[in-house]
Amino acid sequence: MESSLKIGSAQLGPISLAESRYDVVKRLLALLYKAHSFGVKFIVFPELALTTFFPRYWMTNQVDVDRYFETKMPNEVTQPLFDAAKKLGIGFYLGFAELSEEDNRIRRFNTSILVGPDGKIIGKYRKIHLPGHSEKRDDVPFQHLEKRYFEVGNLGFGTWPVFGTRVGMAICNDRRWPETYRVMALRGARVVVLGFNTPTENINHDEPLHLRMFHHRLVMQAAAYQNGMWIVATAKAGYEDGFHLHGGSCIISPTGEIVSQSTTEDDEVIVYDCNLKLGDYILNSVFNFKKHRRIEHYGPITSQTGVDDLIDVSSKL
Ligand code: CDV
């Protein structure tokens, strides 16, 4: 195993409704070249990186929705990204809306791919923790219709050997769930990468920006330490046609510390040379899974979703 890997997080500023995929790919290419000039070998782009964050809009005509989806990857517009990756020897993570025909029906997923330094796709992940709602809400300032426009991912939490380590992928809301990282850690992931679009306003509860940012970092910093892994999180940030996304791209070490973070709400590359052995001492001591995990007591994690089935343990005490 190589002992270090220079990773870049390539944050995007806003993508307006009017911006074409072609123009967005030009921005992604500029970030890729900039990352290369910093010596980056693996670059992480955001969730749904080719379009505006369309789940905020209520659309009743499926043709309108499908305009945001890719039916092929790479395709004519994104091919230059794959060509540049190959030419420069950089791998990347890219999020996009995926429309595919499977089991004789059209399926739509919030997807990310892992592309190797040879420009070939080596892994695919489809978002599992879809937030939001599936019907129109009239009580909120904007919609969050991921549960309407996407199916729950059906590929599980995969991990892939690449860049001298093992990489896992997640997407946005997945980062808030501890199960996401632990499953990947048990599958050997030492680096987890993810993209996100997080609205500054919580449509369900009045929450100040500092608390939104605190929770965003808290979940990942804890997960990095608890799983002895690097986490790279890349935002789409800023005002998209009047709707604000809070940004806060960051690279987190296995000690739980943020070692690099974005300072703008625009297109920006942040970089860190990640010591791939740094998590070893954590995984060999306090979080030595084999030695200390007590799976006989973890049953509810996989047998229950909510607390509906909760038995009253207090009556047995
Ligand atoms: N795109 C997302 O998954 N956004 C969620 C919001 C809705 C809370 C997030 O977890 O950031």
TrEMBL record:
Entry GO MF terms: hydrolase activity, acting on carbon-nitrogen (but not peptide) bonds, in linear amides
Keyword Protein biosynthesis applies: no
Keywords: Hydrolase
Residue span(s) of domain CN hydrolase: 5-276
Transmembrane segments: none
Matches recorded under PANTHER family: NITRILASE C965.09-RELATED
Protein's name according to its UniProt entry: N-carbamoyl-D-amino-acid hydrolase
Organism annotation: Hirondellea gigas
